[in-house]
Amino acid sequence: MAGRIQLFKPWFEEAEHQALRQPLETGWVGAGPKVKEFEQRFADYVGVKYAIALNSATAALHLAMLVSEVKDREVLTTPMTFVSTNHAILYAGGHPVFCDVEPGTLNVDPADLERRITPRTRALVVVHYAGHPCAMDEVVAIARRHSLTLIEDAAQACGGEYGGRKLGTIGDIGCFSFESKKNLSTGDGGMFVTDDEAVAERVRKLRWMGISRGTWDRFNNGHPARAWEYEVEEVGFKYGMNDIAAALGLVQLEKLERANTMRRAVVERYRQALAGLKGIELFDQRAYGGSAHYSMIIKADQRDALCDHLAAHEIESAVHFYPNHLLPIYQPYITPLPVVEAEWRRILTIPLYPHLAAASQDRVIACIRDFAAGAAS
Ligand SMILES: Cc1ncc(COP(=O)(O)O)c(C=O)c1O
């Protein structure tokens, strides 16, 4: 056997190693010039006025819920996500209202979303599942019709597009993840984006304890003798990014389009090789946008048996996600969701990363084809 094939793998090269030298050599490893540069470059890349670097998408989602004032109000959401999306609603004192999804993409079903709006609804959060864009024309129209704040959880969608705009910039607030295995990886990290100046100003304070000016600004852009002076305007958090992560982020951002093109090529190869296999179904790829291809998810009638078969051949696979509304902690918010409940039992994530070698991918494909042939006979 030729060794274990991982599910995800960040794509780090010599440039990332080099990028770490500067913060380590200058000794400025906290939030400083690299964070500022990364924020500016990211804002330019996605096309927003304000990008605020954080230590995770979870932090971005939490702050999104706080500034959207969801306390004691309902937030429309999906159960097909990492729990961060829904925990963020709870952190801010809101009530998650779970919506059903479209079977072809597992993205939120706009019709079901609109049906669940009540006078208590304050906001909605959409997740671009596996990097594939939600039906944003319908979602935006619903948000506007009902005066709801629209938050995009673009944790899996960095570089994806819809109607010529980058995912994460179509709603009022976008939240990105730079966690270890994401399209753009800084080990851990996140970005909050918005075009709203007041929201950006508040999030900048909330990310660092509610303090009005960061250390770098106080020491470099103020009166040097008064660099210790600051105001604390509200109880904030320790959510900022540091210059080590930002230095990595700058390099990863530079190669994001290339990495996503490589991801697309891997996905297309899988789709050709796995199309039409008995007991295996591929997700829809909608013409309205471009996926970021964060993960490759297939549907298999005998999902658990296929997972075991891959494991026996040293190929990792996993299920993303256990539907959040079925988790014990979310029982107060449980509601029947027929599509989620039928489809999640068939989903399986298989290896995908930009530099997945063709020989490794061929092993994954052969293993799935063997399984399908066995199941069919
Ligand atoms: C859809 C989604 N939302 C939020 C998150 C949380 O991201 P982070 O780990 O940066 O907090 C993730 C990470 O897996 C995710 O996939």
Question: Would you give an account of this structure?
Answer:
There is one protein chain. This protein is α/β, with parallel strands linked by helices and 377 residues long. The chain has 2 domains: 234 residues, Type I PLP-dependent aspartate aminotransferase-like (Major domain) (Aspartate Aminotransferase, domain 2, 3-Layer(aba) Sandwich); 120 residues, Aspartate Aminotransferase, domain 1 (Alpha-Beta Complex). The protein is built from 14 helices and 13 strands. The strands form 3 sheets. The chain has a 7-stranded mixed sheet with strand order 1-9-8-5-4-2-3, with helices on both faces. Strands 7-6-11 form a 3-stranded antiparallel sheet, with no helix packed on it. Strand 4, helix 7 and strand 5 form a beta-alpha-beta unit. Helix 3 runs parallel beside helix 10, helix 4 packs parallel to helix 5 and helix 11 packs parallel to helix 14. The longest helix is centred in the C-terminal third of the chain and has 19 residues. The model has no long low-confidence stretch (mean pLDDT 95).
CATH superfamily of the largest domain: Type I PLP-dependent aspartate aminotransferase-like (Major domain)
What is the string of SSEs from the N terminus onward? HHHEHEHEHEHEEEEEHHHHEEEHHEH
What's the N-to-C terminus distance? 26 Å
Radius of gyration: 21 Å
Fold-level CATH name of the largest domain: Aspartate Aminotransferase, domain 2
Task: Output the CATH class name of the largest domain.
Answer: Alpha Beta
Total domains, how many? 2
What's the helix count?
Answer: 14
User: Structural class, judged by helices and strands?
Assistant: alpha/beta
Kindly report the average pLDDT value: 95
Secondary structure: number of strands: 13
Give the bound compounds: pyridoxal-5'-phosphate
Strand numbers in spatial order across the main sheet: 1-9-8-5-4-2-3
CATH architecture of the largest domain: 3-Layer(aba) Sandwich
